[in-house]
Amino acid sequence: MSDQASSLFIRWLQREVAPALGCTEPVAISFTTAYAAKHLATPCEKISGFISANLYKNATGVTIPGTTVNGVALAAAIGAFGGDADKGLQTLAGITSQHVEQAQALVDAGHVTIDVQDTPDFIHLDLTLSAGDQTCRVVVKGTHTNVVELYINGEQQPLHAGENSASPDAPHPPQRRLNCQLSLSRKRMTLLSPRRLRILRLFWKPPASIAHWLQKANRKSMG
User: Fold this and answer.
1) Backbone angles phi, psi at 182, to 5 degrees
2) Mean pLDDT of the chain
3) What's the number of CA atoms in the CB half-sphere (13 Å) around residue 18?
4) CB of 81 within 8 A of CB of 102?
């Protein structure tokens, strides 16, 4: 492989790999609502919208990082009350039991309504937060923290450079709580060609938590 190809591959890999707290699917939901909540003057009173079917499938049964609970609605509500979108995939690093209680109360009151839709993008979230007479709608597509649309009170807002990703200076949580996961979806991994899988192993040793997915993808692609 040429030096140019190696450089391109390494840049691609660096872009696709990011530090995360636990499973990235519920974090993507929390990130979206946390991003919307920071544009509201008062605490969130209602959450509505939809997420992609693939994201829902992967997020619904796993524990929300930093908590002992699970569920799409709770992930959305927890992000709205205690998430820090500036931390990207570490949005939930500062979650407390109080945030979880607030989120549970909002869900129990029936104020979180998130539908599921089949979408071309594996990752697609379109969520609206309401507080009093204010609303904020955020659309995330493609990757877990890629904000592509922002609406405040129904009016689309410009997205500034770097606004749709975590700040590079955001502090990292303690190492014992840091779980570096591949931001690529499992669906993407199964589409890797045998040649790309071999190249991937040359540059990157995956953590044990996802290594078996690469092995499975390799067997499938060669079969």
Assistant:
1) -75, 125
2) 77
3) 25
4) yes
Question: In whole angstroms, what is the distance from residue 134 CA to residue 129 CA?
Answer: 8
Q: Report pLDDT for 199.
A: 56
Is the pLDDT at 1 greater than 70, yes or no? no
Q: What is the pLDDT of residue 56?
A: 94
Tell me the per-residue pLDDT of 39-53, one tens digit each, with 9 for 90 and over. 999 999 999 999 999
Half-sphere exposure of 119 (CA within 13 A, CB side): 20
Between 57 and 130, the higher pLDDT residue: 130
Please state, in angstroms and rounded to a whole number, the distance separating the CA atoms of residues 43 and 54. 29
Q: Is 93:174 a contact under the CB 8 Å cutoff?
A: no
Give the Cα separation of 194 and 76 in Å (integer): 37
- In this prediction the pTM is 0.68
Burial of 108 (0-12, 13-18, 19+ CB in 10 A): exposed
Spatial separation of the C-alpha atoms in residues 167 and 19, rounded to whole Å: 12
Largest CA distance in the chain: 59
pLDDT tens per residue, range 71-99: 999 999 999 999 999 999 899 999 999 99
